[in-house]
Write a structure and sequence with these properties.
- The chain has 241 residues and is α/β, with parallel strands linked by helices.
- It has a single domain, classed as Metallo-beta-lactamase, Chain A, CATH 3.60.15.
- The strands form two sheets. It has a seven-stranded mixed beta sheet with strand order 6-5-4-3-2-1-14.
- The mean pLDDT is 97.
Length: 241
């Protein structure tokens, strides 16, 4: 990986491992069967990496839902990487305290805040989801800007807010497309990408549960018609951009 590149590894659902300039930022790792245990929805794919392979410097959890704040896997990650700061909104920090995480590494954030994750500058963005504290983020590193929508519905207000926080070109958007349970659908995701004028658009939050998925090709083909580069990430396979 050259000095100006960023690598992205999709972990399935809304989970990612970002790497740049020696910093590893882990987002929303969902590795357990907790959703099946509590809600009866069986995973369609196994965790693409072992927890021992993650080695994060920072952990960012966007909201307190089982497939984002995994109450089985995240305590294991916290125990193994005990010095890695855990960053999240109020609902996440409250849950982490309830699970007896070390308070010294818990960092609460809210929309419009900026948090430095090693080489990544992370700007916390709004998200409109059933957890009222939900957030997304803009990641700025190596003269590139990545927008991670996290779980959110679409609105013109969201577009306006993201434009205001981005303060310039967004190079890559990672956007939910499943269209259920408080998330935008693939068509709304295309509108978001078009209005934010991203160069690359990558779908996420599909393929984990049969009851809550979408065909990513609908999104990809619509983006291509707008001359926006779009493709699927393969869970567990690092993509350098």
């Amino acid at each position: 990986m050259n000095n100006n590149s960023i690598s992205i590894t999709w972990l399935g659902q809304g989970g990612f491992l970002f790497e740049a300039n020696g910093t590893r930022l882990l987002v929303d790792p969902f590795f357990s069967d907790i959703v099946e245990q509590r809600e009866g929805l069986k995973r369609l794919i196994d965790p693409p990496l072992e927890i021992s392979e993650l080695n994060p410097n920072y952990v960012f959890i966007t909201h307190d839902h089982l497939d984002h704040f995994d109450p089985i896997s995240l305590p294991i990650i916290h125990e193994k990487y005990s010095e890695a700061p855990i960053i999240g909104p109020e609902s996440v920090i409250k849950k982490a305290k309830d699970l007896d995480f070390s308070e010294s590494v818990l960092h609460m954030v809210s929309k419009n805040m900026t948090y430095q994750c090693g080489k990544f500058e992370m700007v916390i963005t709004p998200a409109y989801h059933s957890d009222p504290y939900s957030v997304g983020c803009l990641l700025k590193v190596n003269d590139k800007q990545i927008y991670l929508s996290a779980d959110t519905t679409f609105s013109d207000i969201l577009v306006k807010e993201i434009k205001g926080l981005a303060l310039g070109k967004i190079d890559i958007i990672l956007v939910c497309i499943n269209g259920k349970l408080g998330n935008m659908n693939w068509s709304e995701a295309v509108t978001l990408v078009d209005q934010l004028q991203s160069e690359i658009a990558i779908p996420m939050h599909y393929g984990m549960f049969a009851e809550n998925t979408e065909d990513p090709n609908l999104f990809i083909h619509a983006c291509e018609k707008l001359d926006i580069t779009s493709f699927e990430l393969i869970p567990g396979i690092k993509r350098t951009i």
